[in-house]
Specification:
With 311 residues, the chain is mainly alpha-helical. It has 3 domains: 3-116, no CATH class; 122-215, no CATH class; 219-304, Arc Repressor Mutant, subunit A. The chain is elongated and about 80 Å long. It has a 3-stranded antiparallel beta sheet. 59% of the residues lie in helices and 5% in strands.
């Protein structure tokens, strides 16, 4: 690829749009060659670090962030670079309403795209509400079946008490309550509801304690990392906090190994071990796998499942 084959000018004037366009040209035309990009667009190349920080903070949840993710995932790819760029520009100019068909030379409107869906009618809303109610009822029935199978009929706790107990745990944790106090809470609630000993055990061990642990997962993870810390745990703890400063919970983001190694301040050999451990601890989840290789610029995509205390 030679410099004279790249577009002479960036199409957009808005810094955030220029940032995404720059990455599109870099990936589609320049095959990730940063030196080539710096030669063609020196002013923009120099601004990338500053713009990147602002982009991560403000644009990851917008169509611009979606465009960047799609770019890394190869959604705009086509046999010809010119068609790939056409896919990209059509998506950008429609603000995410028109998505590309990577296997065609045309860009088509996707009727299933959320942006293109008409607003639901009153009847549709009613149907959707009914579907959600049925799903809730199914989950409730599944819980009862699980309790009946694992604990027996005599240990069952009705769904109204199940909801009340979970609300009590939520309020307890919200004010900084401790796990060891839940037994007394469960005993008080069981006495108030005239529960049997078996039902009391279910209330405490199968409902209240597990729900507390689920809500309190960030504290459990921190405790695990800080208990008998080794080099790997220290790296995970630092990397987790670094990711939490930049990315929001449950929002997908691309992360290359090169960038991840820098954020974690670890070696390339330690980084895969760190990522695997974080996935097992359910700190992050890998959504898609990037392409490996010296020339590949397609990063893996992750989602942050939980943030540290106070983040």
């Amino acid at each position: 690829m030679y410099a004279d084959q790249l577009p002479k000018f960036l199409r957009y004037s808005d810094p955030m749009l220029r940032y995404v366009e720059y990455h599109a040209i870099r990936r589609i035309y320049a095959n990730g060659d940063e030196a080539l990009m710096a030669q063609r667009y020196p002013e923009m190349s120099a601004q990338i670090p500053e713009i990147e920080t602002n982009f991560i903070i403000s644009e990851l949840n917008t169509f611009k962030g979606q465009a960047l993710n799609m770019l890394f995932e190869g959604v705009f790819d086509n046999e010809y670079a010119s068609f790939a760029m056409m896919n990209f520009f059509r998506f950008m100019e429609s603000e995410g309403k028109i998505v590309p068909d990577s296997y065609q030379k045309e860009v088509i409107e996707n009727p299933q795209s959320k942006a293109n869906k008409p607003s639901p009618t009153k009847a549709q809303k009613s149907i959707n509400a009914e579907i959600k109610k049925k799903k809730r009822d199914q989950r409730s029935l599944a819980r009862e079946n699980h309790q009946r199978k694992m604990l027996g009929d005599e240990a069952l706790v009705n769904k109204d008490l199940y909801k009340e107990a979970r609300r009590a745990v939520f309020e307890h944790l919200k004010v900084g309550g401790k796990r060891e106090d839940l037994l007394e809470m469960a005993l008080d609630l069981a006495k108030d509801k005239s529960l049997t000993d078996l039902q009391t055990k279910t209330l405490c061990n199968e409902i209240m304690l597990p729900y507390f642990d689920k809500l309190n997962i960030h504290n459990n993870i921190e405790f695990e990392l800080l208990k008998n810390p080794n080099n790997l745990k220290k790296t995970i703890f630092y990397f987790w906090h670094q990711l939490s400063h930049i990315y929001e919970k449950d929002v997908e983001f691309p992360l290359s190994q090169e960038h991840g190694v820098k954020m974690a301040s670890c070696s390339k050999s330690t980084y895969p071990e760190c990522i695997d451990a974080m996935q097992k601890m359910k700190i992050i989840k890998k959504i898609s796998i990037g392409r490996k290789g010296a020339k590949s610029k397609t990063a893996s995509v992750y989602k942050l499942l939980v943030k540290p205390t106070g983040k």
